[in-house]
Design goal:
six-stranded mixed sheet, seven-stranded mixed sheet, 24 strands, alpha/beta, 505 residues
Amino acid sequence: MSCLTTAVLMTLKDAAPPFVLSLDIGTSSVRAFVFDAQGRRVSSIDAREPLALRVSSDGAAEIDAAELFDAVGRCLDGALAQSIDLISPNAIAGVAVTTLAPTLVALDHDGVPLTPVFTYADTRCAQDAAALQARLDEHEIHQRTGCLLRTSYWPAQLAWLRRTRPAIFRQAASWATFGDYLELRLFGRRRISYSAASWTGLLDRALLSWDLRLLGELGIRPGQLAPLVDRDMPIQGLIPEHTARWAELADVPWFPAIGDGAAASIGSGCSGPTRAALTVGTTGALRITLPNVAQVPDGLWCYRIDRHRALLGGATSEGGNVIAWLRDTLRIDEDPDVLDRALSVLPPDGHGLTILPFWAGERSPGWGGDVRAVITGLSLGVTALEILRASMESVAYRFALILEQIEQAGVTPSAFIAGGGALIASPAWMQIIADVLGRPLIVAAEPEVSARGAAILALDALGVVVDERDTTTGAVGFVPNPDNYSRYRTAIARQQALYRRMLQQ
């Protein structure tokens, strides 16, 4: 669908050193870019490798660890090959990394994966999440770690592995995110940032240490987890196996991987409480950066960006994945621009449908990990295009519910910066979300907000200060229609009524 942004691309002659190579390891692809000292992406360097998330009807959502590492390697190869004769060997001052979060992989004593990389979307542990909720004080743990005892996080996934794969659970010498597994492969040792650790659900967010009480409940030893570091503590010295392949990076500082949500917020210019980042890629999220969060509202999470800043918000398991599934299943193969224009002229909530868009389970705000998608109101007169529009609206309603929770915490952002590939590609969806929220949306001028955010934080650690807001917002804005907003409020109430009925079954 038509792209809305004016990407912040610089030719090399206009770029200002030092440069940061930024790796963005997402759900559907790995990407590598180079950013200059002002946080601008260099146009001539763009390496991408697609990923295949393995999903199944039982709730699996996993990636092979070796395949993911190889994809990272090919992206590094591509980015460095594209930079030959453009950037001098010593011009790359650091490597920044952001990953999908959370991820979990079991390693043996030699650091060899015993399992695939389990992602946040894996819901096979729903039974174990429910058992933990019944046995432990979820409210207390939510306030301590910023995370609920739900399928997206390590406690439920570890309990599931302990129950269903006891031999692997016993054999596991360590438990890793993909970010610290990547460091282990590259440097022979691993660390984990406060940011990535906070996404596991096992970090005490106030003490910035592993939550020993929760580890004990799960049968995990602290020594099985990576040492904690902040995002500004780099590692250097690739092991010999990789030095020959990536000689330009052999002694360059690599910064620990941070969560993709933290990176996207910084990359969108949302580093303070007045600007909220709304991102829709494969999945979605609405986040706001605060110096501290004393009380985490029900249904939301609180992660760390670093020792100084927290990230309050909610994430959805639904986003571009829902639209991609519908287009494929309903065989909607129109030109993307033509399709988006057709969607934009359909009346708001004019289809008679009510949809729970939980194709991959629910995260915020209700966290019904094993709840599934529902479409009601179908008739012979409903078209595939109306189903697609209704699904876009249904995803937008989830953001409205998350915003209500954020505002109940006493935080009212004045600007909403929209980013993410699925959202940026669709003006129709942008307008829907603006109308649903009743708030104007400002489009991020840089589409690769996660990669940019990781690069900005790496530059900061290198002593290079970037005003991340300088080049993050484009001129295109979407202003809400008050009449549409009123119609959507009624539709949200209808969706919530359906949601409550489904939970009672």
